[in-house]
Structures are given as structure tokens and as C-alpha cells.
Design a protein that fits this description.
Keywords: DNA-binding
Protein name: DNA-binding protein
Strand order of the largest sheet: 2-1-5-4-3
GO molecular function: DNA binding
CATH topology of the largest domain: Beta-Lactamase
CATH class of the largest domain: Alpha Beta
Number of domains: 2
Strand content: 5-15%
Pfam families: HTH_31, MLTR_LBD
Oligomer: single chain
Number of strands: 5
Structural class: alpha+beta
Helix content: 40-55%
InterPro entries: Cro/C1-type_HTH, Lambda_DNA-bd_dom_sf, MLTR_LBD
């Protein structure tokens, strides 16, 4: 539903914040308006002055997605401002590109401050590991070494038995359902030409279990807060997984911790020492 008052206020504030020099217009000597005039914005947005003025006055028809996109471009909005404008007009914002390996500086600052005794990783929405702490590597191996479709943990889960060896057998069915559900959700967001769609096509061709689960059309299966790992050196670990999502990118920071004083906590400390010793 359109928020007419919010839309009008936002358009007015953005127009007043823009200066003629910002959009290549001459300032002139008689300008009294704070920011741009309505007719100037209307010209930049390729629409009539009357149409734009009615929006600022909380009147007129609901603007289409094409008109909102034109206003976003004409007003020189950032991606966040553009998305806000779409929502005020009652539309879903355009999807953002999701196959970039870019990690924001803010996310990296948090990641770099994690101590050596904390397993953590930064992953894409398809489960492609971009960064790991040393203890993260000691826990599950170097997951950033994979290339092609195998970069995705969901793809490896159905094609590489080593991926399943990291978890107890009784957890395998849940992980299978979770990875299929997650891939379907990403495909729905990103569309039939996306990387997610290509992964689904590959897995349907290569894995009978994936085909069965895919046809069940389950969605909304989220990871458990506690994950169980089978490590060849220290055995079973039960770790809490906290997830920090980057608001500007589709990446997430996953941080694994154990309850202090627990058996898993002691094993994680041991694994940290073994990892440090083996790297010397």
C-alpha cells in the first residue's frame, strides 16, 4: 500500500537536498528555492511537472515501478534511498546483484577483530565461503579452496561425501532439507537466470536425493542454533552459530562458539592449540 504522506515528504526532502550543480544545471542569479525546483526535477525524471507536483502534494495516481525508477534516477538516489522510495510507493524494490564476492569494509573490520580462538567464516547466500578464521579452517578445512559449483556447500552436500563427513549421520536428513529449501528461496528471489537456478539445474541432474527433496517444494527451513561437528582429531563438538547479515550485501558472517565449561569448549580450546602448533 502506498504511503502518500511518506512519499511526498521523502520526495520533497530529496529535491531540496539536491543543488543545481549536482545535476549539471546552472544556478542562475534569481534562485530562491532551497534545492531544485519541481519543474527541474520533473524534467530530470522525464515526467510532467503537474504529475510530479501532485505526488509532492499527496495526490494523483499511484506511480508505477517504471515511474519510481525514473524518479530515483532523476533525484540521484543511493541504492538504499531508491529501495525506500519503492517501498513508500507500495512496490518491492528491485533485487540486487548477488553473485559478487565483495565483502564490505565494515564486515571485514568485524571479522578481523575476531580472536584466534573463534571459528568464523563469511559466506554468500549460496553458502560459498569467502573468508575463514584460522580456527574455522582447523574446524572444517579450507572451504575457500573450491572452484566452480563446488564453492557452494549446498552443491557439495549432494555431490561430495566429504561434506557430510563433517556432521553426525543422524543430522544428514535435516541438512539435506535445509540446503534444498535455502536454494529454492534464493532462486525465487534472484530469478530463473541466476546462479541459484544454474545450481538447481546441476543438482537435479546429478543427485537423486536432491530431485526428490526439490519436488517436495519445502521452504523456510532454517539452521539450528546449535550445530554438531565431527572432527577427526577431537571428536564431536556442539557449537552455537550466530549469524550477522550485511545489510548492503548478500553475505553473512557466521561465528561459532561453545558454552564455557562444556566438553565442546575444552575441545575447541584443544583444536585451537593444535591449529596454532601445526601452522608454526
Amino acid at each position: 500500500m502506498i504511503d502518500r504522506a511518506g512519499l511526498a515528504e521523502f520526495l520533497r526532502r530529496r529535491r531540496e537536498a539536491l543543488q543545481p550543480e549536482d545535476v549539471g544545471l546552472p544556478r542562475g542569479q534569481r534562485r530562491r528555492t532551497s534545492g531544485l525546483r519541481r519543474e527541474e526535477v520533473a524534467a530530470l525524471c522525464h515526467m510532467s511537472t503537474d504529475y510530479y507536483s501532485r505526488l509532492e502534494r499527496e495526490r494523483g495516481p499511484r506511480p508505477s515501478e517504471q515511474m519510481i525508477a525514473a524518479m530515483a534516477q532523476g533525484l540521484h538516489l543511493s541504492r538504499d534511498e531508491r529501495d525506500h522510495l519503492f517501498r513508500l510507493a507500495g512496490h518491492q524494490p528491485p533485487t540486487r546483484a548477488a553473485d559478487s564476492d565483495y565483502v564490505s569494509p565494515g564486515m571485514l573490520r568485524i571479522f578481523d577483530r575476531l580472536t584466534d580462538d573463534t571459528p568464523a567464516e563469511i559466506v554468500t547466500e549460496l553458502g560459498e565461503t569467502l573468508r575463514q578464521t584460522p580456527l574455522g579452517v582447523a574446524l572444517v578445512g579450507d572451504l575457500s579452496r573450491f572452484t566452480g559449483p563446488s564453492r557452494s556447500i549446498g552443491y557439495r552436500w549432494f555431490t561430495d561425501p566429504a561434506a557430510r563427513a563433517l556432521h553426525p549421520p543422524e543430522d544428514h536428513q535435516f541438512y539435506s532439507r535445509m540446503y534444498v529449501s535455502g536454494l529454492r528461496s534464493v532462486l525465487t528471489r534472484r530469478g530463473p537466470e541466476s546462479k541459484a537456478a544454474r545450481l538447481a539445474e546441476l543438482l537435479n541432474a546429478e543427485s537423486a536425493q536432491f530431485r526428490v527433496l526439490w519436488n517436495e517444494h519445502e521452504v523456510g527451513i532454517v539452521p539450528h542454533e546449535v550445530k554438531r561437528y565431527l572432527h577427526p582429531a577431537v571428536g564431536l563438538l556442539e557449537l552455537n552459530c550466530q549469524i550477522l547479515q550485511d545489510s548492503a550485501q548478500s553475505n553473512s558472517l557466521l561465528v561459532y562458539t561453545a558454552v564455557p565449561g562444556s566438553e565442546s569448549y575444552e575441545k575447541l580450546q584443544l583444536l585451537s592449540a593444535v591449529g596454532v602448533a601445526s601452522s608454526v
